[in-house]
Amino acid sequence: MQVAAGVSTLVYLPVKLAFAIGGGIVGGLTYAFSGFDETAAQKVWNTTIFGTYLITPDHLEGNRPIRFLGVADSANAPAPAPAPEPIR
After folding, report:
1. Phi then psi dihedrals of residue 81, to 5 deg
2. Distances in Å between the alpha carbon of 69 and those of 13, 17, 37, 42, 57?
3. Which residue has the higher pLDDT, 80 or 86?
4. Do 72 and 36 form a contact (C-beta atoms < 8 A)?
5. So what's the pLDDT on residue 70?
6. Which of 19, 20, 33, 44 sits between 20 and 30 A of 67, alpha carbons compared?
7. Angle at the Cα of 26 (from 56 to 34), degrees rounded to 5?
């Protein structure tokens, strides 16, 4: 499983890094063109820069999710709805 995780990381990491670098640039442009609105830029940066960079055996076994995208605004996001009661 470790070898598979290593090979997966070799394929996945360059794509994720390119996406994050592009998001950093686009976030900077968003900041400049939005009249220096840091909130708008942060949404771009958080979504593109955060997330999973290295694939581990836990990811491949399904114990941890692979998150290509980060969460744009988790601090101000509403709490998820509670799970419905099971049907009995």
Report:
1. -65, 145
2. 13, 12, 22, 14, 20
3. 86
4. no
5. 86
6. 33
7. 135
Q: How much is the pTM? A: 0.75
Tokens encoding 84: 């419905």
Could you give the CA distance from residue 16 to residue 10 in angstroms, rounded to a whole number?
A: 11
Residues 6 or more apart from 22 whose CB is under 8 A from it? 48
Contact indicator for 13, 53 with CB cutoff of 8 Å: yes
Q: Which residue has the tokens 């958080």?
A: 46
CA 45 – CA 1 distance, rounded (Å): 32
Query: Tokens 């063109």, residue?
Result: 33
State which amino acid sits at residue 26.
V
Amino acid at 9: T
